Prior knowledge:
The chain is of the alpha+beta class. Helix content is about 45%, strand content about 20%. The chain contains 6 helices and 5 strands, in the order βββββαααααα. α1 crosses α4 (about 130-155).
Amino acid sequence: MYKTGDFVLYGGIGVCIITDIEESAVKIHWHTEQELLYYVLKPLYHSCTIFSPVSNPKVFMRPIINKEQAEEIIEMIPEIKAEIYHTRLIRQLSEHYEEALKTHSCIDWAKLTTSIYAKKKLLEQDKRKLGAIDEKYLKRAEELLYGELSAALGISRDKVPEYIAHRTLNQKETQRKNPAPMSIEAGLSQVL
Length: 192
């Protein structure tokens, strides 16, 4: 069970803070009531309040990643291989993107973002634009990814792209200046 002050990822809403845990009577049948515990959630990037039963298996909820996990994810971003998804069927494209979003994984959101940006770049070479469905899911994946990274890193969401660019640029510079030391076996295999 979560406690007041915990940050959680809630369904497709994104990062929320648990502001309270309340008990409330709910009608089970027209003549029967039952007391249930509810999380009172305040989304960080939406102006609403959510009441979710503590024992609600229907809506996905998990703790947000910590700072170390956020840093690890950012370090992995340059290594992500774009997997451009093409189809003329809008429903199929939407389902493909929804599947990636519903994993509730920052890595999958980063992969989706990278893949849609690669698709955009490819289309721009042919002087074409990204479709509305691609744009919609790119925006949603960025909102979810940047929202969770910002909460984990303690920075504002609009600073996350700059933070990622800075970290990945520094990572590339460090690797260029200080190549990873080779193991004896790897060194020998290059010589032989």
